[in-house]
Amino acid sequence: MIRFPHSKINLGLHIVRRRSDGFHELETCFYPVPLRDVLEIIPAARLEFTASGIPIPAETAQNLCLKAYHLLQKNYSVPPVKIHLLKKIPTGAGLGGGSSNAAFVLMMLNEIFELKISENQLLNLAAQLGSDVPFFIKTSPQLGSGRGEILAPLPVVLKGCLVLAKPPVFISSAEAFRKATPKPPLLPLKKILEMPLKDWKEKLVNDFEPVIFKEHLNIAEAKEKLLRLGALYASMSGSGSAVYGIFDKAPRAASQFKDCDYWELDLD
Fold first, then answer.
1. Is the domain of 25 the same as that of 83?
2. CA angle, 7 as apex, 4 and 13 as ends, to 5°?
3. Phi/psi of residue 161, nearest 5 degrees
4. What is the domain extent for residue 83?
5. 106-159, pLDDT tens digit by residue?
6. Residues annotated as catalytic (active site), given as ranges
7. pLDDT < 50 positions in the chain
């Protein structure tokens, strides 16, 4: 079986408070993006994981694909499989590639072995693997709260062209959380997203940006470049390092981002 795990961007990200369990209370909109990995799973005599494409920095044993397999195997006695991941979504970018891979492993194993696991059960399993993994069980924009695992659908529809630019920086989400300063938002995220896109620039914020931009000027510069090129809205995704801009039409500006990985993706 072959599937194509997608990525995400965050439309706004509020770090509301630090919780007593060590996590942070968040408010964000997860929006699906058509930048995809390729994931193949086939039954095998023994468990095997291989990867190609963009190098994966974590040790193989820590890969979220394998963590997803072992979680499901523990609960449902899943037979061994061979997993191959062709990595196209950059890591340490705030685009959710590893989380998407984990969610797709859960869904694919459920389908391959006819486990009949409900969506709610998949969401609960996904939350054990990471705060944003449950989003990738869904297929539409979601308002994420709690630590990101509590989801509610949002009627947000982006049109035009989405430009992604990722400077050559790997950002650790855990490190970004340690350095960020929680604060209550001035407006609820849902209310902001109901406003016209032209009003987002002043109101829709990512609370990670101040600390990340201070330490990595090239990420801040990439965002500013997108705005100068005419982006209707631009932001960092998650804890970075990728930034995105929403354009009416493709700016064809790859030559201006020679130091970045760069994509222009159709949203229509």
1. yes
2. 160
3. -125, 135
4. 2-153
5. 999 999 999 999 999 999 999 999 999 999 999 899 999 999 999 999 999 999
6. 8, 132
7. none
